[in-house]
Amino acid sequence: MINLPPEPSETSPASPAPDRAPAEPDIEALILLLRRKQGTWMDWGKACLQLQKAGYSPQQIFEATGFEPVQQNQIVVAAQVYLSMLKVGVSDAVRARFERTGSDTLYEFRVLSQGDRAAVAELVVQKGVDSEGARDLVRAVKEYSRLAAPPEKFPQAPGDAVAYFCWNLARQQADLQARSRLIAQGLKFASSDSARQQLEHLLTDFGVARVQQAPRLPFYRLETESEVPRVIPVAGRLPLSRAHLQAVPILQEEEPFGIVKFSGIGAWVPVPGWQVILAAEDPVALITDSDQLPNVPEGPSESVLVILDRAQRQWDEFSYFVVDQEGHLDIQWFDVPPAKPILGRVVLIMRPKRVLDEDFNKELWQLEE
Known about the structure:
Layout: H1 24-36, H2 41-53, H3 58-65, H4 69-88, H5 92-98, H6 103-108, H7 114-127, H8 131-145, H9 159-170, H10 176-189, H11 193-201, E1 219-221, H12 242-246, E2 253-254, E3 259-261, E4 267-268, H13 275-279, E5 283-289, E6 303-309, E7 321-325, E8 328-332, E9 342-351, H14 358-362, H15 364-368
Parallel strand pairs: 1-9
Antiparallel strand pairs: 2-3, 3-4, 5-6, 6-9, 7-8, 7-9
């Protein structure tokens, strides 16, 4: 809990204490701003970020202000997204829409580039899309950006990106009601005449396209404690002096995968010795959210650990690969050999262990019953 001094009364303004640290009044002002919910959500996001940079944990901020950690994350990320959009440039209508509300919508834009964020924001305002609809728009634009080249009939993103997404799904639908709904949604967002013509053609062409489906992502989940190794620092090989033992740092694991950081450059993560891991020649771990992967799996989003083998750069149609997408690492599947260089093959995507009662597993007598 962050301890604050009593708030000054309205009748007698408080005078600053001469021995108070210069930064302390700023911290107090940030906490009071959040506690009283003064200003806009942008002010709240900036305040939360400043407190976090000052060393306060999300739980401490929650106890002092009432802002839950998940809400802190949303407004901090949304504020950063909004500022990045302003650098690109947005219309007055977009500014008016998001200056006071809309952090839940902007949070969905976090996976897009700066230019796409601004363009999608304009589309959201023009079409009156809510936060749920914004999630679908982001998914469509993200998948559109993964294409090797924009489809000839759908050239104008982001409107045509959404139209292409709807068109591609609609032509695979045998159910006429679902097909019609997707066509209508695509027509709502289509920007070019050619995109509209492609969608309208589906109104008279009832053939169902057979599209090669992407393979399933190689998900695994840790199920038992025996599969979860513990990372232990190594002091060296005996004989060692006491100084060697005392020099070993205390390691703190970060959930949900037990990542260990140290004062040098780098970090480690414990991974079970499964055969697919042992077979990797040059394994490297990446962390992401499951809803940011291609071919998004069903269920709620969660943190996942992506293991790629940098030694495997040969394309095949049954695997996902990591490539450079406009300066950022991206996981993609290709039905034909890609033009861009492959940086590694995804060999495993690991979900965190799911344990209902951590204390239960520590009670040996319960396991023996």
